[in-house]
UniProtKB/TrEMBL annotation, chain A:
Protein name: Polar amino acid ABC transporter ATP-binding protein
Entry keywords, A to Z: ATP-binding, Cell membrane, Membrane, Nucleotide-binding, Transport
Position of the signal peptide: none
Domain of life: Bacteria
One MF term in the entry's GO annotations: ATP binding
Gene3D superfamilies: P-loop containing nucleotide triphosphate hydrolases
Family membership noted in the UniProt record: Belongs to the ABC transporter superfamily.
Compartment list: Cell membrane
From TrEMBL, chain B:
Pfam families: BPD_transp_1 (PF00528)
Domain ABC transmembrane type-1: 22-210
Swiss-Prot/TrEMBL keywords: Amino-acid transport, Cell membrane, Membrane, Transmembrane, Transmembrane helix, Transport
Gene3D superfamilies given in the database record: MetI-like (1.10.3720.10)
InterPro entries tied to this protein: AA_ABC_transptr_permease_3TM, ArtM/GltK/GlnP/TcyL/YhdX-like, MetI-like, MetI-like_sf
Organism listed in the record: Gluconobacter frateurii NRIC 0228
Name this protein carries in UniProt: Amino acid ABC transporter permease
Keyword Nucleotide-binding recorded: no
Family: Belongs to the binding-protein-dependent transport system permease family. HisMQ subfamily.
Localization, UniProt: Cell inner membrane; Cell membrane
Membrane is among the record's keywords: yes
UniProt-listed CDD domains: TM_PBP2
């Protein structure tokens, strides 16, 4: 039985079906990438996994616990197991970096301030942001905001980390940093799901690839590197590898993969 | 008859009758503003609700109280409530009328402030598991409040002068008292200058107060040590000098 099993997700906006019978699985500690053309439903699918999107149908099993995603109370259960990092980060502008990290643990999870702050400082240290604890989000660069958003998500100790375009705001050097961070987290047992247009990152990080097209799953790939690239996926990645943020051309030759520098 | 009497001006300026009128104006403004703010906040939140049971009454409220004259609202309250066997003082009727009217305008100001809080922050707070109430009090209100202080200041200034409309239900506030004294010695310019001076004093006092509130609302943005973002630090020295 897979660690994460998502099945039959349907989302409707008025008369249009944004997602139709979407499903995928993942094992603990794997990195899953959603790829596909704009408007194919990648971000919508990501949002369903944390209850930010009302679904017509769909169920999700994490570690044997099944959640019916169309039930009213499902958002709470989904949010207890997952955390999300948005493309625009959504950092609270009137709070310091430290408070951004400790707010949910103290007011939602009811941990003590002392404990939450201790953990937040440790995380910031780990992400190279130790000196930014008392800074406001507006005073951070894009890459720093990204790491703060990841740190805030990690404070919840999620089983599942969702990332929407985690590398789109970053220069190539920062892309490598974030990639290696995600690798480390996955190695520690966290399952990571990302939406990405950066085919270089997708090729180098993914254990599984979900290719979406017009709201349904066109292809599922599984395996490190090229193994995950079914013909459809490889074709898509080849035609989209000229994205400026993707860095290297993906698919095709093994030289196309970019291993993050550790 | 002389054009301007300094004696008359200073006599009226020192008149306890006029002074008490000014205090009444100030008191009505303060009470109506505070009550109107909380009512306006409630209406703004209701109007933003996706539930039509909440949003439609709020829309109707704003439509009605902004669309009809305050003068009419005051008369209806003053003349209508006794018919329902509710007897209130002129002061109470004035404050109710001013509050109901002001709340409609404040609701729109507050709504604009709430709309300005980035939707991404709200979604992030939801994803972090925060309840709608926690999101409102910890994320939305504090950031909206800072934005609405300047338009709120406009409202206070306007309301200070709008209180004079309550004279229509025989409230003897600053303006009404000035007009009563005009009947006495016909010193129109002197009396109205005194009234204007009182209004100016009160709006000036509010200006100081508003600055204190802004100072308070800026607190979270000031308490943090402000650092220059990396992007700026990486600029060559010459372009930094040019700034």
């Amino acid at each position: 039985m897979p660690y994460i099993d998502v099945r039959d997700v349907c989302v409707r906006h008025g008369k249009t079906e944004t997602l139709r019978d979407v499903g995928f699985t993942a094992e603990r500690g794997e990195i899953v990438s959603f790829i596909g053309p704009s408007g194919s439903g990648k971000t919508t699918l990501l949002r369903t996994l944390i209850g930010l999107q009302s679904v017509e149908c769909g169920r999700m099993t994490v570690d044997g616990r099944m959640v019916n995603m169309s039930e009213p109370g499902s958002a709470k259960v989904l949010r207890a197991q997952a955390a999300i990092v948005f493309q625009q980060f959504g950092l609270f502008g009137h709070m310091s970096v430290l408070r951004n990290l400790t707010l949910a643990p103290t007011v939602v999870a009811k941990r003590t301030h002392r404990e939450a702050e201790h953990e937040a400082h440790e995380l910031l240290e780990k992400l190279g942001l130790a000196d930014k604890a008392n800074v406001l989000p507006d005073d951070l660069s894009g890459g720093q905001k990204q790491r703060v958003a990841i740190a805030r998500a990690l404070m919840l100790r999620p089983a599942l980390l969702l990332l929407d375009e985690p590398t789109s705001a970053l220069d190539p050097r920062k892309v490598q940093e974030v990639s290696s961070l995600l690798r480390d987290l996955a190695r520690d047992g966290m399952t990571i799901i990302q939406v990405s247009h950066a085919m270089g990152v997708v090729a180098s990080l993914s254990d599984r690839i979900v290719l979406l097209e017009a709201g349904h799953v066109r292809a599922l790939g599984h395996g490190r590197g090229q193994a995950s690239q079914t013909p459809d996926i490889a074709a898509f990645m080849n035609t989209h590898s000229d994205d400026p943020e993707s860095g290297a051309s993906a698919g095709g030759s093994p030289q196309g993969f970019r291993e993050p520098q550790f | 008859m002389q054009i301007w009497s300094w004696h008359g001006f200073f006599t009226y300026l020192g008149s306890p009758y006029i002074f008490r009128g000014a205090l009444l104006t100030l008191g009505m403004t303060a009470v109506s503003m505070v009550l109107g703010f909380f009512l306006g906040l409630l209406i703004a939140v209701m109007k933003r609700s996706p539930q039509p049971w909440f949003s439609w009454p709020a829309r109707f409220y704003v439509w009605f109280f902004r669309g009809t004259p305050l003068l009419v609202q005051l008369v209806v309250i003053y003349a209508g409530l006794p018919k329902l066997d509710i007897r209130l003082s002129v002061m109470a009727c004035s404050i109710i009328g001013l509050t109901l009217n002001e709340a409609a305008y404040l609701a729109e100001i507050i709504r604009a402030g709430l709309n300005a809080v980035p939707a991404g922050q709200i979604a992030a707070a939801r994803a972090l598991g925060m309840s709608e109430r926690q999101i409102a009090w910890r994320i939305a209100f504090p950031q909206a409040f800072r934005l609405i202080i300047p338009p709120l200041g406009n409202s206070v200034n306007g309301l200070l002068k709008t209180t004079s409309v309550t004279s229509v239900i025989s409230m003897e506030e600053l303006m009404q008292r000035s007009q009563i004294l005009v009947q006495d010695q016909f010193m129109v310019l002197e009396l109205f200058s005194v009234a204007a001076l009182y209004y100016l004093l009160m709006t000036t006092a509010w200006d100081f107060f508003q600055r204190r509130i802004e100072h308070f609302a800026e607190r979270p943005y000031r308490r943090q040590q402000r650092v220059i973002p990396e992007a700026v630090m990486e600029l060559p020295i010459s372009s930094q000098d040019a700034r």
